[in-house]
Write a structure and sequence with these properties.
By secondary structure, this protein is α/β, with parallel strands linked by helices. It contains eleven helices and 16 strands. Helix 3 runs parallel beside helix 4.
C-alpha cells in the first residue's frame, strides 16, 4: 500500500511545512531567496511540495507542481502555500505565477511579500487578475528571518552581516601573539561551518590570514556550494601560497593601494582584486558591502581578528553577533572587537539576545544591536 500523504489541518501547519522545505535551500539557492511551497487539496492533504533549487534552476512552486505530478495528483482548484510571494517577472527562469495559473491552482497563500522591486506585490496582483484567490498568510516573520540576507540586499542594497567569534569566558579570542587554535571544541567549530554554509561570502582580514592561514571554506558540514572567500587586505600582503587561494570556491581581495606586481601574483592564483580605498588609505568597509551586494551576496559571514571586528562594530555595520564561549580562562590576550575608548558606558553597543544554546561543551550566543533590524525590515 502506498504511504498516505500527510494532512495539514490549517494554514499555519501547511506554511510551517513549507518553511521546512525552504530550509533545504540553505547553501543551495543563493543569490535567490530560500523558498518552500506546499500544495494541498480542499481537505488539507498534501499533493506536492518543493523548494528553490540552485540559481537558474526551478523555483519552489515549480518543484511542488512537479512533485504532485510525480505522485499522480491533480492540483486543479488546490491551494499552494508559499513562503514568499511567487515571482511575476522573467529572470533566469519564467514567472512562477504563470506556472501556478497554468496548473489550475485555485488559491495561493504567501507568507510575505517579495522585497524584490521587480515583484513587490505584483505577483499576488497577477494571480488575482487571473482569477485565483491570492492572499498573505501566517509565519511572515519566520520567512523573513530565513531570508534575512535577501531582504537586506533588496531593501538596503547591502548584505546582512553576521560576525562570528570564539572566545574564552574572559572574552579572549587569542593569546597576545595571535594563537587561537583552538579555543572552542569540535562541535562548536562544526556549528560554525553550518553558519558559513548559510552565507554567500565569508570574510576575514589580512591579520587573521597571516596568523592562522585559514581556508574559510565549508568542510565540516555538507553543502552544495562554497561561499565566496573575501579578504580585507589594504596593502595586498596576501601570500600567493595562502591556503584560501586553493580550490574550491572563488576568492575576492579588497585592497586600498595598487601594487601591480602583488596583484598579478594573486590573480595568477585565481583571486579577484578590487580597489576600494577610504580617505584614511584603508579599505572602505561600507563600499565593500555595497560591492558584495552587487555581486549577489545576501549574507556575509565575518570571521576576523579584533581590529577588523572593531572596525565593523565602530562603523555600525554588524547586524548580528554569533559568539561561541568556551569554559576556560585565558588571561591576557586579544579581545573580540577593538574599538573605543568610550567616554561613558551609555555609548556601549547594546545587544538583544536572539538565542543561547549549548554546543558540545561550549555555549553559543546570538545577538543583534538594539534597534538595528527594526530600522529597515518590515514586520507583521
Amino acid at each position: 500500500m502506498p504511504e498516505a500523504s500527510p494532512t495539514f489541518p490549517d494554514a499555519a501547519s501547511a506554511m510551517r511545512r513549507a518553511l521546512q522545505m525552504a530550509e533545504s535551500a540553505i547553501g543551495l539557492s543563493d543569490p535567490n531567496p530560500r523558498v518552500g511551497c506546499v500544495i494541498v487539496d480542499t481537505q488539507g492533504q498534501l499533493l506536492g511540495e518543493g523548494h528553490t533549487q540552485a540559481a537558474g534552476q526551478a523555483h519552489a512552486e515549480v518543484m511542488a507542481l512537479r512533485d504532485a505530478a510525480a505522485r499522480g495528483r491533480q492540483v486543479a482548484g488546490a491551494t499552494a502555500y508559499v513562503t514568499l510571494e511567487p515571482c511575476s517577472h522573467h529572470g533566469r527562469t519564467p514567472p512562477c505565477c504563470d506556472a501556478l495559473i497554468k496548473a489550475g491552482i485555485g488559491r495561493v497563500v504567501a507568507a510575505c511579500v517579495d522585497p524584490n522591486p521587480q515583484v513587490g506585490g505584483q505577483g499576488l496582483a497577477r494571480l488575482r487578475a487571473a482569477g485565483l484567490q491570492a492572499e498573505l498568510g501566517p509565519l511572515g516573520d519566520e520567512s523573513r528571518e530565513l531570508n534575512i540576507g535577501f531582504f537586506s540586499r533588496m531593501i538596503r542594497g547591502r548584505p546582512y552581516v553576521r560576525l562570528k567569534a570564539a572566545a574564552s569566558l574572559d572574552g579572549r579570542t587569542a593569546l597576545p601573539d595571535g594563537q587561537s587554535q583552538w579555543i572552542t571544541a569540535e562541535p562548536a567549530r562544526r556549528d560554525g561551518h553550518a553558519w558559513r554554509k548559510r552565507a554567500g561570502a565569508v570574510l576575514t582580514g589580512i591579520g587573521t590570514l597571516l596568523d592562522d592561514d585559514p581556508r574559510l571554506d565549508v568542510r565540516l558540514v555538507e553543502t552544495a556550494r562554497q561561499p565566496l572567500r573575501v579578504v580585507i587586505d589594504s596593502r595586498l600582503q596576501t601570500p600567493p601560497g595562502a591556503r584560501l587561494l586553493a580550490p574550491p570556491g572563488e576568492v575576492l581581495i579588497y585592497a586600498a593601494q595598487a601594487d601591480e606586481a602583488a596583484a598579478a601574483a594573486l590573480r595568477d592564483q585565481g583571486a579577484q582584486i578590487a580597489l576600494l580605498p577610504n580617505a584614511q588609505g584603508k579599505v572602505d568597509l561600507a563600499a565593500v558591502l555595497q560591492d558584495l551586494a552587487s555581486r549577489g551576496i545576501n549574507e556575509l559571514h565575518v570571521e576576523a581578528g579584533h581590529k577588523l571586528n572593531g572596525s565593523f562594530f565602530r562603523e555600525g555595520l554588524v547586524d548580528e553577533l554569533l559568539l561561541y564561549l568556551a569554559p576556560k580562562l585565558i588571561g591576557l590576550g586579544r579581545e573580540v572587537a577593538s574599538f573605543g575608548p568610550l567616554a561613558s558606558l551609555s555609548q556601549a553597543i547594546e545587544l538583544d539576545w536572539l538565542d543561547q544554546m549549548p554546543v558540545g561543551r561550549d555555549l553559543r550566543l546570538r545577538g543583534r544591536p538594539q534597534g538595528r533590524l527594526e530600522a529597515w525590515l518590515p514586520r507583521g
